[in-house]
Model the fold of this input.
Amino acid sequence: MPELPEVETVRRGLAEHIVGKKLRDIQVLHHRATSPNSITALTSIKGARVININRRGKFLWFELNRPEVLVGHLGMSGQFLIQPKSAADERHLRVRFNIGRQELRFIDQRTFGWLSVEQKIDGLPTCVQHIAPDPFDPNFNLAETVARFRKKKTEIKRALLDQSVMSGVGNIYADESLWRSKIHPETRTETMKVSRIEELIQSATSVMTEALEVGGTSFDDLYINVNGESGYFERSLAVYGQEGEGCPRCGRQIRRITFANRSSHFCPKCQPTPRASRNR
Done:
């Protein structure tokens, strides 16, 4: 699933190409492209002009010259592409927006992504109300975020993936952040010092900043930017997807465990099993 660096890369591309453009026509080609929570059909915003593209965590929304906003979530394989009108339709094309000489296309192979028309409350779309600020958000508050981590009373990897605690981090950048901070994914949040949680948040911010500089992480063609280009942070991954490879820091083989219904990758030497876990 695209995480913050990938979604922000898409947001920047969309902002460059479609801010100021009018949605002259909208064609919905698959019913699952529209969220069940959409307050109206996507075609209802035909004729609206895009005035800005915003993001929180993994959610994008198009500010329009109307009270409503168009929200997008890429799910597992969603893509926004800017294409010439003459370009052949992609196999998994779900929604087509005519923006003049070009088209904005929403493509989604696995159909877990969606678009919706929503109202705003205090400047945020309805579906984003429960999403916590991410580390790049002007409203991000470090002390409040640390407090939310500690209140969860769960494993730190699970808390990192909880978008109501701190948004934007998924499985890739959670593993990378924990490795940089030398924290085992099963460490309990309530046992962690404030300084360690702050260090972890800084690691997450740093790794996502580095990923953003190279367009995010692409393991296949399911994540590309609006120009159809892949990101290159995969080449810099220390632990995610590196099972059996040597740790870049100590050389010990990277291990993989199943945790929170996902695979977690870590170095058993740099990230030792927490005492509580060893005693269970």
Notes: The two ends are 32 Å apart (CA to CA).
